[in-house]
Amino acid sequence: MGKKSNASTNKSKEKRQARKLEQRRIADGMNSVTSANKLTDLATLCRELLVYRNKDMEVDMFIQRVTELDKNVLDWAINLTEKNMKELYETCAWGWNPDRKVEEMTDDSAWYLVAKQKDKLLAFSHFRFDMDFGEPVLYCYEVQVEADGRRRGLGQRVLSVLEKLAHATRMRCVRLTALTHNPSASAFFRACGYSLDDTSPSIEEATHYEILSKATMESEGGTDPPIAS
Ligand SMILES: CC(C)(COP(=O)(O)OP(=O)(O)OC[C@H]1O[C@@H](n2cnc3c(N)ncnc32)[C@H](O)[C@@H]1OP(=O)(O)O)[C@@H](O)C(=O)NCCC(=O)NCCS
After folding, report:
1. Protein residues with CB under 6 Å of any ligand 1 atom
2. pLDDT at 229
3. Architecture of 6-220 per CATH?
């Protein structure tokens, strides 16, 4: 039978502790995601960013779950996505599948940030609080701006709202998938401080998309965020 040496007992102890820590980290992350998804009024976490003014535009933003979103607003978001993205999807391995896109955009876990100037809808983001590769993240599924609202800082403001929400709800980062053959989006995300995420596939695995992210202040070692309740 024999007896385990002290060194090997210590090693198994360390392994057990590491496993426990990892399980704890994942459980904490899942709790943060559950709490974020239970929030009833996300606007209270980012109120100061929801009015965007520059010299030629004044835009109001609101946030709703897809299940509460007005049907006309949802239809507009779906049409804008098709207008902006169809060709880009068609020219890569994904292809454009309108039913799949609608299914994704109407999933019960979807949240919408919508920007409008008076009655004109100008931009939106579809985002979710979710576990991704074992981490709690705010996943930005879509950021879309109407052609006549672009290059005025609106897209950047939309991302700032997402970043504030991610921090306030203890998400590790804002993460997104970007098509590599969409150079304006690539320039935009990089200008907003996004960089290649560790979970991005290698060139051998996929060439048409990449995963980008921006860490929240919390995961960069900043101050503790408010607790989402
Ligand atoms: C990409 C998109 C969201 C950017 O929104 P936007 O409101 O025009 O962006 P902003 O005005 O906030 O731009 C912020 C910065 O990003 C960079 N940027 C934005 N659009 C750019 C473009 N077409 N080319 C190069 N850089 C760009 C610039 O540095 C810009 O700052 P500047 O205007 O002072 O130079 C918008 O062009 C869009 O909806 N495109 C079609 C849909 C799409 O590709 N969505 C992203 C993938 S889901």
Report:
1. 84, 142-145, 150-156, 178, 182, 184-185, 187-188, 191
2. 46
3. 3-Layer(aba) Sandwich (3.40)
